[in-house]
## 1
Amino acid sequence: MRRRLRPILALVLAPVLAGCFASGEESSDSADTGSRLRVALAFPPAENLSPYGADSTILSRLGVTEGLTALDANGTAAPALAASWRQEDEKTWLFTLREATFQDGSKVTPATVAAALTHATRAAPAPAALAGVTLTATAEGAGDVRITTGAPDPILPLRLSSPSLAVLSAKAYKEKDDVDPVGTATGPYELTKVMGNTAATLDRYDDYWGGRAQAAGIDVKFVADGTARASALRTDQVDLAEAIPVAQAATLDKGTREATATTRTTSLLLNSQKGPFKDAALRAAARAAVDTAALAEDVHEGYADPGAGIYGPAVTWAAGKRTEPVGRAEPGRPDGTRVTLATYDNRPELPEVAQVLKQQLEKAGFEVTLEVREYSRLESDALAGKFDAFVLARNTLVDTGDPVSVLASDYTCDGGYNLAQLCDKDVDRAVAKAERATDTAGRQDAAMAAEARILGTDTVVPLVHQRIITGVGTSVSGALLDPYERTLVGIGTRR
């Protein structure tokens, strides 16, 4: 029944969006200045576009913010605001800055970079990229920034590529408890106006150090409904639409849908601190009830792979290093145990996944109440552990590009994004060991050993590894389809 309603919903919602991008469509920009891009994003700002939380990827995907480094296609650190760097000792790195300016006209200097990073270290909660990490940034001479960490941090250049460690000008930090990215970043597009959680306007920043962007600006609408995003692309109201629902993919012309294998895993997170899933035997019963193949084939219609672990096939080295979960409990008997299962509808497949999970859990003997909200209205309750179970789609490498960082932020006692409320000494020790590993192979091995410990608690049940569908208009070229989901629009994106 739900699938039959979708085309009707698309027709109902299309008029709602019809005027959203009128200014972009009526643009009189010449070929020299470039047309404006019209973009539909799935996630409205949840934290007033603060660079320190989930909103940071909104800013990076739109080409607004940058850090000292970037993540290249191979998952390694590449120059951004830092032209180069070197390690002075096991705790100290020296970053040499390139010549660049902020969008308010001030220069990027060692002092402003050090101040920006210092603000990030003081944010509460801490950015996920800084989970378990302490660092001090100081200006050195006319062009260098020295960063010292409390403990050896072999992946610091990779960590600094995180969207949550973007560098903003001094103007951004004038308010004591707020950070304002409007006109204070360094990217090719300047955020000029934010209309709450519904829309935003960006203009090209002509003095961008990396060259002049080809589009004159970006008109953004935050459209949580996936059917509406697909409809807007199909009716030429937008040029780019992220996270197209798999059920809507067939309604788009083949040339306008791009499926990208990502490092995103959808998981069932079980609250291990309070409620029924504090019992490891009931967590094991929930895990045993899940049929991941059905979720991949039926809900995701083949645009996903069955869950194998925290890291999926896009993390190419993981499968060969994976070991069996450690210390799993024997499944208990649910006997009508009541649980609340929550998820969000910004990613349209998630409510369907949750509905199928509800049926699978009820078949196993649980009584399940399902709660679905828009993500920005759900996050604080999820972080506070107010649900027994939560379905989350998480890009495991988005925060730093380092496989260990997501383990520290999501599954340790002090993790800033620990929706499973997991606090296990053996897990913390395994993650800490992985954090100390310095060479790439050793770090990967240690990450997989920690994954085995985490999966052994049954607080996380990997469901599917996703391929994200992006709607790209036929007139658009240069869209950045990123497996790490950090970028979407760059200087070469245009229509």
## 2
Amino acid sequence: MNKKKLKTGALTLSLLATALMAGHAMAAVSESEAAKLGNSLTPVGAEKAGNAAGTIPEWTGGLPTDAAAITPDGFVGDPYPGDQPKFTITAQNYEQYQDNLTPGQIAMLKRYPETYRLPVFETRRSAAMPQRIYDAAQRNATQTKLVRGGNGLENLDTAIAFPIPQDGLEAVWNHITRYRGGSARRVVAQATPQVNGSYSLVKFVDEVVYTDSLADYNPEKHGNVLFYFKQQVTDPSRLAGNVLLVHETLDQVKEPRMAWIYNAGQRRVRRAPQVAYDGPGTAADGLRTSDNLDMFNGAPDRYEWKLVGKKELYIPYNSYRLDSPKLKYDDIVKAGHINQDLTRYELHRVWEVEATLKKGERHIYAKRNFFIDEDTWQAAIIDHYDGRGSLWRVAEAHSTYFYDVQVPLYAMETLYDLVSGRYLVMGMKNEEKNPYVYNYEASSHQYTPAALRNSGVR
């Protein structure tokens, strides 16, 4: 769909004035600056060269689509089976590595000095995307614009709105609009362990369908809708059949996110305005907000966004071992945090973006520090602070790369509460069969409130 564009409407003079007053650039970069993409920069805007120390290699195109075998259950095999940890960061030795750690990681090492550790492996710049995404990013670099004070987009082509970001807001929009493989369906599990590690699973069937992939796609009809999200609970039985439907809009100030919930017990569909910002996450026992899903989602309008700059950090990466179908959920879910012996950390360059709650706005997180991987535009770590300025929650995304379909994605997400000692892990699929279906075919009529009742039958 190289020529298809998702548009939020004409850019009026009043919107122009609003954006200029907010200090946001209307177009990302010039043609000469955009020419760096695919040359000194990767096609999506990362630095192609390695670092001076040689600890981050040059990006040479990422893994090939046949990097390793696909299992009968639909899991991608580990393309680096012989890799072993180079060293392990612990509470006892973290000070010698602290320049490459986030405050949240250091807090976790101190909170769980005997069990939380970071096994560090060789850095592998495995990520790649289809050529059509590279082409779209090249066009977006000069044509995608911020509207309504930076809270919406105009002229977005497919994915990665600002491959050469000029400020923090553009960088976070890259996370929101990053390439996820188009439309997909997945079967995943979530756990919210007690302090002692005991837990019960909640299982979901999630569908994410981008409007440009719909069988009945119409730019006039779907212009401000980025994607449809449907989440059906399949387990436990007391929640089974409940369904959440979201119409995610590009400009959520002009046209707020629309959400509905079907309650299987009541057999009723209701609007769900709480599915946004710091509204409670589905079956999360109060351990995450709505906008914690996918590390961060939704409208950015309640925060001021500052682009701090680039850093080299040890972040979760190439988490094939953690995503293995050979593991059981009991192998992963432990007291305090997931089993860190199954994790893999690598040194990568990240964009640091600081989000500070605007005066007069409300959210339980007064500040969030984002650390966004330069090769994929996925948020890798986000530190969350409360209204007193204290570090409260630490989110880590254990990423992997589905090389067979050229999709960078999260194997699972964790959100640790430093105060309560509890946490949430979501996106696990180790015990599921064929958990992912890409190029999921759908029509818009499947994502209407009227269609919810049928999809939620127990």
